[in-house]
Design goal:
Shape: globular
CATH architecture: 4-Layer Sandwich
Structural class: alpha+beta
CATH superfamily: PPM-type phosphatase domain
Strand order of the largest sheet: 1-2-11-10-7-8
Largest sheet: 6 strands, antiparallel
Distance between the termini: 37 Å
Number of strands: 11
Helix content: 25-40%
CATH class: Alpha Beta
């Protein structure tokens, strides 16, 4: 990865498609010759680089997935904990590799950036968009005053530039302030965020009316904010968490997910996520997973 201030880093921050090809080349995911072939085909045909990579099957899906998880740190298996918060995620893949990715990125100003994405087409498309997002946050980790809807706008423009018009994804971007408990968020086409409120003993649905990224180049994404009090828990998830169907064909649904959260609320966060997975898997036992399923949760500790 480039050092801060280098030409490549600045290009990645601006989400330039040439910089993404350079990252893929630097990490051995494509050869220098393949990089030049993509650039040539892009110039000759006008086809976006992402479409070329996918259609020509230049990238190897398993190798790409390994790079994203190991080098970019996406889909971490261990929780991230501070004195006041625990953050944890869990992905259940329908196939060998997942189209869902989540990330936890500590920032220099006492905030944590969290992301969750579900990419149409899965496989290579999902992996490339995860690299776009991971590089934006990893290389821009020192950014001050950044807000989730600004990040979403960059992701949207990058998707349009790199893939053209036939690729879209649902995204959630959140910034957790470790001192105040405020969560700034922007959700693009994703299911409603759920928040367990310990004082009231209820689960709220937080619905953000934004379309998925990659559809309209000039769409103005809107963000919002909420506060987590002691004992509260926030859950973001992909559509596989509620689209699973039971033996009679009924969808698992968001209401069942909310009820499962309430039943599991007193367990440790990692146990809550595995409990949500188990409840959904039991319900859909005879039909199997409808899609990749990912949960990403923030818990504010009760006593601190």
């Amino acid at each position: 990865m480039s050092t801060p201030g280098s030409t490549t880093t600045m290009a990645i921050r601006s989400m330039d498609e040439g910089a993404i090809l350079e990252v893929l080349s630097q990490h051995g995911l494509i050869s220098p010759e393949q990089k030049q072939d993509v650039i040539r085909l892009n110039h000759e045909t006008g086809m976006p680089p992402g479409q070329i990579l996918v259609r020509k099957r230049i990238l190897k899906e398993k190798q790409l997935y390994k790079f994203i998880c190991k080098d970019l740190g996406m889909n971490p298996t261990k929780p991230y904990s501070t004195r006041s918060f625990t953050i944890s995620g869990l992905t259940v893949s329908k196939f060998r590799t997942s189209g869902d990715f989540y990330g936890i990125f500590p920032m220099a100003d006492g905030r944590i950036a969290l992301t969750l994405s579900d990419v149409s087409g899965k496989g290579l498309e999902a992996g490339i968009l995860a690299i776009l997002l991971g590089n934006l946050l990893r290389e821009g980790i020192q950014m001050q005053n950044i807000v989730p809807n600004a990040i979403m706008k960059k992701i949207n423009l990058a998707s349009r530039t790199f893939f053209g018009v036939d690729q879209f994804a649902t995204f959630v971007v959140m910034l957790l302030d470790l001192y105040s408990g405020t969560v700034e968020y922007c959700a693009a086409g994703s299911p409603p965020i759920l928040v367990y409120r310990r004082k009231e003993g209820i689960v709220e649905e937080i619905d953000q009316r934004n379309i998925p990224v990659g559809i309209y180049e000039d769409f103005q994404f809107k963000g919002n904010a909420l506060n987590l009090d002691k004992g509260d828990m926030l859950l973001a998830y992909t559509d596989g968490a509620f689209e699973a169907r039971g033996i009679r064909g009924e969808m698992y649904g968001v209401p069942r997910l909310k009820n499962a959260m309430l039943k599991l609320r007193n367990k440790k966060l990692t146990r809550i996520l595995t409990g949500l997975k188990s409840d959904m898997r039991r319900y859909s036992f005879f039909r199997g997973l409808a899609d990749d399923t990912t949960y990403l949760a923030i818990e504010r500790h009760k006593k601190r």
